[in-house]
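Re: [ENG-882] Designed sequences occasionally contain unexpected residues at chain ends

Forwarding the minimal case from QA. Structure tokens:
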């Protein structure tokens, strides 16, 4: 019996996918549920598992765009598994046929002409022309007797734009994945279709450093996750969104949609590029809950198991470029959201504190926002609220009870 494998729907609104990579070869024997291909949608990269065991016949090439429901391969379920798990005979025969080609003798190289004292020497007339052009004689190939540089060679010589070094000068042309093309499309759309502005501030991270240094070991021992900066930033953002609800809104045509919940998109790095999974109802999560959820999503992104549902929605985004060493940037809005907060690296800098200069761990903050729906007053107020919470977390984020907030 021959089973037709069709492309399953990765999620709502997705009508086609792209074959990113076949993980098996035509004629291989595959086991049921074995990953046979990676397919790209405009939202995520997913693995395609075999629906049955048997010998596979591929019906699409890598890079092909195939519609949801289209047949991409056939599986002969009546075929017996080869001994030792080897591939089908066809694959073996191909390898045998390729072997003799390696025995072909390489063509003999031509013997170079013997150089003489005249090789590369310019005639007086040629030398004058080369000097006027600023060209050295060793940059010109002579066509005269014994390689002598003639007047015509000098006239036709073009100034060199630099001599290539001994290293590789190869190049590669590779089609962008459907996910990367969609990301590019969304970024250009965000720049062209929103009135995006960025406002900046800075935060003294000393209070958070003090809390983490005192409680991080106890926190990790009890909860199994690290007490990082993201839980503080997420809690600070939730508080600021509740104070300035316009930042937690978005435009839909002539309407403004506001939300009474905070679904925070968190940018994480994955093998296929930047992913933005969503921490749902962050306003209801504790510090432990935020850290555990971000860790879960980061692991799924790293292992290529992130799904469309994990990245769908989100009312506001946090991007931590500081982990890569970014000092300051203007993050791009993640449409259709209206705001994104950029975190940056923490650097010890001299700052004025109560009339004295002190060295403090400082972080620049950047809020990019859609000015069509968020006014300057709200954007600045939001960022100041984030700053205040980060610089006074015990009072504003922990209700003056650190151990209770950390569930210790």
């Amino acid at each position: 019996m021959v089973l037709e494998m069709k492309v399953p729907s990765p999620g709502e609104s997705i009508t086609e996918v792209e074959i990113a990579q076949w993980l098996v070869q035509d004629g291989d024997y595959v086991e049921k549920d074995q990953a046979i291909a990676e397919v790209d949608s405009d939202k995520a990269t997913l693995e395609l598992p075999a629906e049955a065991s048997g010998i596979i016949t591929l019906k699409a090439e890598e890079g092909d765009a195939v519609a949801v429901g289209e047949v991409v391969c056939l599986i002969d379920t009546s075929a017996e598994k080869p001994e030792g798990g080897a591939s089908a005979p066809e694959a073996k025969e191909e390898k045998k046929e390729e072997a003799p080609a390696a025995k072909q003798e390489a063509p003999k190289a031509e013997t170079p002409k013997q150089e003489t004292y005249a090789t590369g020497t310019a005639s007086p007339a040629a030398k004058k022309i080369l000097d006027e052009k600023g060209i050295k004689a060793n940059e010109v190939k002579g066509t005269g007797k014994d390689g002598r540089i003639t007047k015509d060679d000098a006239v036709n010589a073009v100034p060199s734009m630099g001599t290539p070094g001994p290293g590789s000068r190869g190049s590669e042309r590779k089609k962008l994945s459907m996910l990367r093309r969609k990301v590019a499309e969304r970024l250009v759309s965000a720049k062209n279709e929103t009135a995006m502005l960025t406002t900046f501030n800075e935060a003294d991270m000393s209070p958070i450093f003090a809390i983490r240094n005192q409680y991080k070991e106890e926190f990790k021992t009890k909860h199994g996750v690290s007490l990082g900066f993201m839980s503080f930033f997420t809690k600070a953002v939730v508080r600021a969104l509740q104070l300035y609800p316009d930042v937690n809104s978005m435009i839909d045509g002539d309407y403004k949609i506001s939300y009474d919940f905070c679904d925070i998109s968190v940018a994480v790095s994955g093998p296929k590029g930047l992913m933005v999974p969503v921490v749902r109802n962050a306003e209801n999560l504790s510090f432990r809950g935020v850290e555990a959820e971000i860790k879960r999503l980061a692991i799924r992104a790293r292992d290529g198991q992130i799904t469309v549902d994990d990245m769908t929605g989100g009312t506001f985004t946090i991007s931590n470029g500081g982990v890569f060493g970014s000092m300051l940037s203007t993050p791009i809005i993640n449409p259709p959201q209206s705001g994104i907060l950029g975190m940056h690296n923490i650097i010890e800098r001299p700052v004025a504190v109560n009339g004295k200069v002190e060295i403090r761990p400082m972080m620049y903050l950047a809020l990019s926002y859609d000015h069509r729906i968020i006014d300057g007053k709200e954007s600045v107020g939001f960022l100041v609220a984030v700053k205040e919470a980060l610089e006074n977390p015990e009072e504003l984020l922990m209700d003056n009870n650190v151990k209770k907030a950390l569930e210790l």
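QA comment: On inspection the terminal residues look reasonable. The chain has three domains: 2-92, 124-150, 195-405. Proposing we downgrade this to a documentation issue.
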